[in-house]
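not sure who needs this but someone in the group chat was asking about Threonylcarbamoyl-AMP synthase from Anaerofustis stercorihominis DSM 17244 so here u go. i didnt clean anything up, its just raw.
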Amino acid sequence: METKIYDLTKDDNLTEIFSDAASVINAGGTVVFPTETVYGLGANAYDDEAVKKIFKAKNRPSDNPLIVHISDLDMIDDLVTCISDDARKLMSKFFPGPLTLIMKKSSKVPNSVSNGLDTVGIRMPSDKEANGFIKACGVPIAAPSANISKRPSITNKKYLVEELSGKVDMILCSKNSSIGLESTVLDVSSDKVKLLRPGKISAEDIEKVIGKKVYGYNGEDALLPKSPGMKYEHYKPKTKVVVLNGNDKSIINYLNDIKADDAGFIGLDNITQKIGNKKIKLKSFGKDISDASRNLYYLLREMDSENLDIIYVQAMDSRGIGLAYMNRLLKAASGDIIHL
């Protein structure tokens, strides 16, 4: 397959580019596009055969449902059978943005999108290029993250062509994703609201809007997985990943004592700048948890290219977006964590 590639940071005529991308989508093709969370690999959500191409391109298990992306609230009416009061409040507050709402699906949504479930996830990206692309298509776009299944999601155009050229019809390269972690996923298909995947929008943010408790994933789950099923491989580089959980001093001391020269560490500036062990390959997230979340996938991929035996990564406080960061990091590490 020949992949057509556009760089939206260099091409001025976005209208023409989005029109070309829409032609691909409406002909049953696949397009990689930028969002504020991670890059997505999209197809017409109403086209069963097109959706199946997403799974083939990613080598993704077909039992994993997809999120449907919209550019306008009017698109929701054909996708779901009802919108709860909770959903309406949350859409009013957080759409467009990094929130996916699980609702009862309509008969128009193919089983390939929903994995045969009676629900579907709906999201409206806040990224202007993502919205422009979807609007030009005129149909909702089913899209998981644009990467080979189980690998770290892609937030930087550097890895798009390398990983997906020849597997998709078109790639829309752009700036780095501003958030860097996938959206919060919230089940609002019943009265009991459940957090299925943490993201930038926290359970506390949601509870303030709907005025009731959000059930599901919490901070204890992030730091200490309670069952093997919560430790499956995902977002994973080829190199072994180990999480270091401790205060700055304990992490610095641990790394300074390492004798091997085939280890790397990714952490915040206040730690990486104080490590004296020259054998450790160092990469810094930046100064805070927002930087760490935005750069996690990119730096896992960068460190993976160093041909090391092990990558140590700093654990973070599981509050706010820190919960999402720890969720992704522990999956990348298959739950392998050292408490210092």
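also The longest strand covers residues 99-104. if thats useful
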